[in-house]
Write a structure and sequence with these properties.
Blueprint (H helix, E strand, L loop, with lengths): L2 E5 L2 E4 L4 E8 L7 E7 L6 E6 L6 E3 L7 E6 L4 E6 L8 E8 L13 E2 L3 E6 L1
Parallel strand pairs: 2-11
Antiparallel strand pairs: 1-3, 3-8, 4-5, 4-9, 5-6, 7-8, 9-10, 9-11
């Protein structure tokens, strides 16, 4: 059983930056692909970014390309999301997720473990 705990959320002005961290425990983290998702009030959870087990492959939702960067450090059992040039529409609860099966996915249903989420609020 993998436990995921996010941190790093907060309130930031538009144009600012935040770095989210996700700490994993209870499993061999390098055996899991990872992803970041977000859920704004009244909306469904949506894919933001994903990264392969080794970190060699990364993929992003179109609206965050060029602004967000996903990375991981398997030695530290952690995955990160660097968010730059933040916009008010990025406001949401951000959650990290781990997927044991081979291959990347942007589907919520494809992930086996989830963190509790961290709030990101971007003011205009």
């Amino acid at each position: 059983q993998v436990k995921l705990v996010e941190s790093g959320g907060g309130l930031v002005q538009a144009g600012g930056s935040l770095r989210l961290s996700c700490a994993a425990s209870g499993g061999t983290f390098s055996s899991y692909a990872a992803g970041w998702f977000r859920q704004a009030p009244g909306k469904e959870r949506e894919f933001v970014a994903r990264i392969s087990r080794s970190g060699s492959t990364r993929d992003y939702e179109d609206s965050v390309k060029g602004r967000f960067t996903i990375s991981r450090d398997n030695a530290k059992n952690a995955v990160y999301l660097q968010m730059n040039s933040l916009k008010p529409e990025d406001t949401a609860v951000y959650s990290c997720a781990a997927r044991y099966k081979q291959g990347l996915s942007s589907s919520v249903l494809a992930y086996d473990y989830w963190g509790q989420g961290t709030q990101v609020t971007v003011s205009s």
